[in-house]
Write the structure tokens for this entry.
Amino acid sequence: MSRFLREEFVLLLGVLTVGFFKLGGDGLLGTKLNSITGVGLTAGLFVVVMAAIFAVVRHSDALAIKLGDPYGTLILTLSVILLEVVMISSVMITGDANPVLARDTMFAVVMTVFNGLLGITLLIGGVKYHTQKYNLEGMQSYLVAIIPLALLCLVLPNFSSIDASGGMSVALTITLVLVSVVLYGVFLFIQTRSHTHFFMDEDHQDEHDFHGPLGSNAYHTIMLVSYLLVVILLAKSLAVPIDGTVSLLGAPAALSGLIVAILILAPEAVGAIKAVLNNQLQRAMNLFLGSVLATIALTVPAVLLISGLISQTIVLGLTAAEMVLLATTLLMACVSFSSGRTNALNGVAHLILFIAYIILMFE
């Protein structure tokens, strides 16, 4: 027991922090945001969140060693995205009606991962190693699944709506649910069964740096999910000072949602950057592109089914400017991952698209 407390004291600290903020700390943050107390609480909250994020990466690395890629990265990706889907679903069921919540969240994840986080990662890897290699077959498999899902779920509804509010027909709703489930199911079969080697480094070696004792698969899985829950719950608490600061600065409300999304995706970002610094670009791409694919494939069926049960309209179609950004992002990804090699220029190009997304948000 004492060994567990030494190794996982961050989990205990995280649980206590969650309890404090859910039992009144959130309200305290909201009322004393500009005071020394508010600043101190925000700083402490941020430190605990970051500690939990690094713990998530630690257990993910342990699972990657024990299971081998792509299973290790797949567990981390699915854990993060499933918790994100739960958050969206809970807001739909208990919160005020927001027909564009799922759409905006998915688009924020796509732009943040595909351009922001991926751009930073490729830039860091390009600066350190000049040129990095990845498994071309694996990247093409991701894009083959992501491109139709993204266009069908986030663009097609604009051209097939049955009313001015963006509502979809029953036929289109069923089609999107089936397409998401079937395409992602086939992809998972390819990734974990028939073509596992597509998602490994070019030399098919699974080399991971892990500092710490290795436990059982069940232990690391439970710890991974536990720390992820801490990150998700504390990210919602951290949204209180973020929302307050955004409002104080007069910035658009969507900015606070983007910041919270980045915090939720932070475990994958830290794991990916760590992998790139070790010249393991394929593992980083498994995390990033796996997140984009899982976000769309899991969120769309969940929100459409819930919207049908609670009779709440869901708008999935992006605005005109957002559709241009999405199409440009997908085209850029096809170019970046067409040769089996990347460099710093690829990273800069993706970061420029992310900056364009941020600028568009302020219009």
